[in-house]
Design a protein that fits this description.
The chain is of the alpha/beta class. Helices cover 41% and strands 21% of the residues. A five-stranded mixed sheet has the order 3-2-1-4-5. A hairpin with a 7-residue loop joins strand 1 and strand 2.
Length: 160
């Protein structure tokens, strides 16, 4: 089962040069779920423990190493099977991207012929509110949805 995994990162209140994740999103086919990661007491560590380590689930996203490390260091959660989309695309079709890692917005434009622009004001607004607005939910869901769509187009994992 291919599941996309994304996070929205926000500036820390204590250290403006440090970014911390505030949401964790998962998407499978047309179903997406969003968790608040910050504040940490809202994060459902126990319910995610088995899901993240299940043999039959492969997690895909961009910059996965940061997400996997964060979950391991902050919550002692291990993501068993994870793949970075940009690396996998470069490996599976090197000529397609000229061996260069590209952001999600560029891949969406190239693969689906859709313009995908992320408004800066959404990223700079307060994502730590206990209840996210519908616009923020849609924004967080779109990244995860497109990653899931791209993962389904490419054969993963690549044979070594």
């Amino acid at each position: 089962m291919k599941v996309s995994m994304e996070m929205i990162w926000d500036q820390s209140d204590d250290d403006l040069s440090c970014f911390i994740p505030v949401t964790l999103q998962f998407c499978y086919e047309n179903c997406c779920i969003i968790y608040h990661v910050s504040p940490p007491h809202n994060f459902p560590t126990l319910s995610l423990q088995n899901f993240l380590s299940y043999d039959s689930v492969d997690f895909f996203g961009f910059q996965m190493l940061y997400k996997v490390r964060y979950l391991r260091q902050q919550y002692n959660l291990a993501v068993k099977n994870w793949f970075d989309i940009s690396c996998q695309v470069c490996l599976s079709a090197p000529a397609f991207l000229n061996n260069v890692s590209v952001p999600l917005q560029t891949l969406v434009s190239m693969i689906f012929s859709k313009v995908y622009v992320k408004p800066d004001d959404f990223l700079q607004s307060n994502w730590r509110l206990s209840k996210l607005s519908l616009d923020k939910i849609m924004f967080a869901t779109l990244d995860c949805f497109f990653v899931c769509q791209i993962a389904n187009l490419i054969r993963f994992p690549l044979p070594l």
